[in-house]
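User: Predict the complex.
Assistant: Input components as received:
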Amino acid sequence: MTDRGSLRSTLHQRGMRMTPQRQLVLDAVRELEHATPEQVCKRVQGTAATVNITTVYRALDLLEELGLVRHTHLGHGAPTYSVEEHEHVHLVCHRCDDIDEVPTELLGDLADRLDAARGFALDATHLALSGVCRKCREANPHVEERR
Amino acid sequence: MTDRGSLRSTLHQRGMRMTPQRQLVLDAVRELEHATPEQVCKRVQGTAATVNITTVYRALDLLEELGLVRHTHLGHGAPTYSVEEHEHVHLVCHRCDDIDEVPTELLGDLADRLDAARGFALDATHLALSGVCRKCREANPHVEERR
DNA sequence: GTACTTGCAAATCTTTTGCAGACTC
DNA sequence: GAGTCTGCAAAAGATTTGCAAGTAC
């Protein structure tokens, strides 16, 4: 149900439409990756200057409900949105705020272990792992400051 | 430098003091575990009603700078504070918002693998892992909704 | 015409900042 | 008396809500 046609009909069943604003928001999320609502709004306004941030929030909610985008908490406040297919684990450096991505396979059997230990179904892509990135470690090897 | 005496002298070196408000905030964090600034404030006000939320924020910042407390992003907005020694990985259920904790050892060699793959120094306690807890899975086994 | 969408303004919530008075040494 | 600490009020930033006007079918 990810292709354009079925998206339209999914919306239609609910009496909703794929409006230009919603399409622009979806496009912006696709293009930007890891964008905050604010950033998405800026991007959309590059094409259609009058689109309101309120509309962006509402569109993001709707698109998330439809399973087209998802949001990830990268720490320090702002959630970021990306398209649903964009599946990997995020690594956030809390020194420079850089975001790196690694395939979920790198987690190995962590999900299984959490399931076994606590019955917890891990959703690895929803949250980021925090730490210090290579660049920052090389720049300043001793501090392991946290934010 | 975690005991009361050296804390006092650390503060003193900076021309600062361990005021009743700061002590109350520290106590509240100790008692509550995973408390938001809001919750800490409520707790403190139970003892000293006039303490302002501003003071709580400032005390939390200071205590964090001193390495006595740390904050963790558990997703959906609010950071929560806990005492520094409180070291484990948090599992947040995004259905019921329940927080579970597992020893960091359960991550196995994840930290090593991230280091090897990306030179990333994982700080496992800073962020939570997100997913669905046992209770919610049993209550409603099919949905794997995200928040 | 009805129902959905949008933009705008205002409300809300969280966190930060400026400042004057109180307190400590 | 100098410098720190606090409470209050206001500012700032992010997100949500109410509502009237616009639009699609």
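Strands of chain A lie at 69-73, 79-83, 89-93, 99-102, 121-122, 128-132.
Let me know if you want any component modeled separately.
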